């Protein structure tokens, strides 16, 4: 099986919503309309992982702050449970981090405290635990860790996620 990455499109929104319901059933999974809204926001970067043309994963990053003081936030990463453990999450995260590095600034995210696989992935990518958000996820009430990856030396400050001057 070959996995390729490309841009997430509005046509992918229903499949993303389907995966959200499977992956995050007690944590307010995003509907298709939320993905469409995110894809229309200029400051966001969303990527799709496809295996034989089928969407098997997705990830999104928001560019925040100004060009002089940029920050980035991972909004979501999801991989079809049947495809987990094959490195797809790593490919998606690497794509988001490359976009963040091109823009500059640190990268923030929240992750459920009981999601050991995701926490391990984020730690291996340079994220550090910054704090705990009690009852962050709704409606489950699950806690989340806030994690941060400091800016890298290869960043290019002053660029937006599309590579244009901000």
Write a structural description.
This protein is an alpha+beta fold and 166 residues long. It has a single domain, classed as Gcn5-related N-acetyltransferase (GNAT) (Aminopeptidase, 3-Layer(aba) Sandwich). It is 27% helix and 32% strand. It has 4 helices and 7 strands, in the order βααβββαβαββ. Strands 1-2-3-4-5-7-6 form a 7-stranded mixed β-sheet, with helices on both faces. α1 crosses α2. The chain is globular, with a radius of gyration of 15 Å. The protein starts with a strand and ends in a 17-residue tail after the last strand.
Assign an overall shape: globular
Give the SSE string.
EHHEEEHEHEE
Beta fraction: 25-35%
Q: N- to C-terminal separation?
A: 39 Å
Number of domains: 1
**CATH homologous superfamily, by name?**
Gcn5-related N-acetyltransferase (GNAT)
What kind of assembly state do the chains in view correspond to?
Answer: single chain
GO molecular function: protein-N-terminal-alanine acetyltransferase activity
InterPro entries: AcTrfase_RimI/Ard1 (IPR006464), Acyl_CoA_acyltransferase (IPR016181), Bact_Acetyltransf (IPR050832), GNAT_dom (IPR000182)
EC number: 2.3.1.266
GO cellular component, one term: ribosome
Please provide a brief summary of the model:
The chain is of the alpha+beta class. It has helices at 13-23, 32-40, 88-103, 116-124, and strands at 3-7, 44-51, 54-65, 70-79, 107-112, 128-133, 144-149. Strands 1-2-3-4-5-7-6 form a seven-stranded mixed β-sheet, sandwiched between helices.
């Amino acid at each position: 099986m070959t996995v390729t990455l490309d841009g997430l499109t509005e046509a992918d929104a229903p499949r993303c919503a389907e995966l959200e319901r499977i992956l995050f059933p007690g944590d307010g999974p995003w509907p298709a309309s939320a993905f469409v809204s995110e894809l229309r926001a200029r400051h966001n970067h969303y990527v799709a992982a496809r295996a034989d043309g089928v969407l098997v994963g997705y990830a999104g990053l928001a560019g925040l702050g100004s060009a002089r003081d940029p920050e980035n936030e991972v909004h979501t990463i999801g991989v079809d449970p049947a495809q987990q453990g094959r490195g797809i999450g790593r490919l998606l995260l690497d794509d988001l981090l490359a976009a963040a590095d091109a823009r500059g600034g640190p990268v923030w995210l929240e992750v459920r405290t009981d999601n050991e696989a995701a926490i391990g992935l984020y730690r291996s990518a340079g994220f550090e635990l910054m704090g705990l958000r009690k009852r962050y996820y709704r409606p489950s009430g699950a806690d989340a860790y806030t994690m941060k990856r400091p800016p890298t030396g290869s960043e290019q400050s002053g660029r937006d996620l599309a590579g244009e001057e901000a």
